[in-house]
Amino acid sequence: MKQLPSHLYKAYFFDLDGTVYLGDEPLPGAVSTVRALKDAGALVRYLSNNPTRTPREYAEKLTRFGIPTVDDDVITTIQTTIWWLKNNHPNAVVFPIAEAPLIDALTRAGFRISDDASQIDVVIASYDRAFTYAKLQIAFDALFVDKRAILIQTNPDRYCPFPGGRGEPDAGAITAAIEVSSGVKCTANMGKPSPSLLQAALDGTGISPSDCLMTGDRLATDIQMAIDAGMDAAVVFTGETQASDMGDGFAGVFRLGSLVDLMCE
Question: Going by C-beta distance under 8 Å and a sequence separation of 6 or more, which residues neighbour residue 10?
């Protein structure tokens, strides 16, 4: 069982809620730890499955906490969706079932958006609190009737948890509705646990995954993503995962009570 990292990595990737902060408050030791890593010269990036907030919103929140952050420090499924489309379907006509941040980003990136099923190449299932039967029908027609489109999703989360045990259906629920009705399976996931977030975050840095550490509070998403990407991983017990949840499959993962334990001696 790994307890503490023994050296400084070239790059550190962090989940946000449950790892760096909880709701609207930074977690104990998080601010000083992240600042110390940056002062030591390490690259620091933050990863989120949430496609309804822009990187700027996250950067402003972290900066308010005392962690100076710029937009490029934050990688969300908005960027990974654009990154994946540019690398795999650069001329695609897309139909995003999504909220404004993703739609705006697709437009800025030059992708044509259409609700004409006969023109759609890629249906994008995302977190959409304005999801309607009409949107489902367009996706169904593009996938099942015209049989020309593929289905991708920004993230696989079934629901977004809220404080007090509440929550909202997330992108996974939208994906499921489309899959069940059309019979077409999702071909690509842009969010954790897919390594796409880490690949996009490392793109252009020249840093190898073996020189990086991913830290998060969820075994099935944050930690599994790092393992699948060939990256070291650390789980903190300030969010979803507790020490009692650790099984044999995660024997090589660092166990941290909080981010304050991350600083190597």
Answer: 42, 43, 207, 211, 212
